[in-house]
Amino acid sequence: MNRELRVTRAFVDLADTLTARFDPLDLFARLGEHCTDLLAVDAVGVVMADARGALRNMTSSDDSLVLLDLFQAQQEEGPSVDCFRTGETVAADDLRETGRWPGYTAHALEAGYVSVHVVPLRLDGRPIGAVSLLNRDSAVLPDEDIAVAQGMSDIAALTLTQWPTEARRPHDLLTSLQAAVSAKASVELAKGLLAESTGVSLTDALELLRRYAEKERRPLTAVARALAERSLRPEDLLEAEPRRVRPLTPGPGPAS
Questions:
Q1: How far from the centroid of its chain's Cα atoms is residue 78's Cα?
Q2: pLDDT for 173-230, tens place per residue?
Q3: CA-based, 20 to 30 A from 58: which of 35, 67, 96, 176?
Q4: Topology of 173-240 in CATH?
Q5: What topology is assigned to 3-160 in CATH?
Q6: pLDDT tens per residue across span 27-69
Q7: What letter does residue 95 receive in the DSSP assignment?
Q8: Could you give the CA distance from residue 213 to residue 104 in angstroms, rounded to a whole number?
């Protein structure tokens, strides 16, 4: 399949709101997967602003990016912060040769990333987040790749507004953004509960949640909330995929 057709299919996929599993976390995960598949990048992270304007990590292809995004949000320093503030693409072809973001650079190099390009996640020209594209070697990302990344990010941002949240008002961007941040928090809580109850790692806990959601044709967020509300047991997720993820240590059952 040629690249043009793959790009077209990625755009169509990101605009799809009809799937039963559609929710913002699935949307951002697909955005990250399409970026790593189509672009000359090693890792992708997506952050989005909450109601107070603080950037929150929504998805990452590498766990180390979660810590990088947390550092940027806490210290208000880094390429994603600059991209969100200006609404413009930010690039550092070689972090070792730039004096910008000294703290972020130290953490990025420690994680093994040498170059970073960030495109804004925007809606109606307004930045609502940022998409980081990182490489383990110095790299000048081609203009074509930047354009594709920006196009996919714009489509994802527009698709987000079509998510049917509770008490939703038409074209209420703030409601969409806050609901997406809340959805992320629900999944993080479910990951912790699942890991503590079964002994699996946090990474495996997320995979369990995703596979169960896919098998049951339910949104990831709905599965996470069911787990938190105890209408779904951690054992139910393990039993659904008994051979693929096993506990590292026997864990206690959920508290009554």
A1: 18
A2: 666 667 777 778 788 788 888 888 888 777 788 888 888 888 888 888 888 888 888 8
A3: 96
A4: Arc Repressor Mutant, subunit A (1.10.10)
A5: Beta-Lactamase (3.30.450)
A6: 898 899 999 999 999 999 999 998 788 899 988 888 889 899 9
A7: G
A8: 35
